[in-house]
Amino acid sequence: MLKRIFIVEVRFNGDAKIPKNLKEKGCKVRVYKNRVRFESKDLQPALELARKLFDKLKERGLEPVLTISLKMPDET
Hints:
Elements: E1 5-11, E2 27-31, E3 35-40, H1 43-59, E4 65-71
Antiparallel strand pairs: 1-3, 1-4, 2-3
């Protein structure tokens, strides 16, 4: 059976302080300069965290962009 990994990314312009409490069981969080990436086997935890961050960035006047992608490793 193929293991699929959901990737939810929030990109934004400018400099934003990313909260440290972006953690959810079963969800890997990676913080980069102008984007935050959430990786999970289930879409729900990654999407919830991304939505929280998206709303916070929107309140601050930044223009965030939410991207959802699916990574399916090749069967070897």
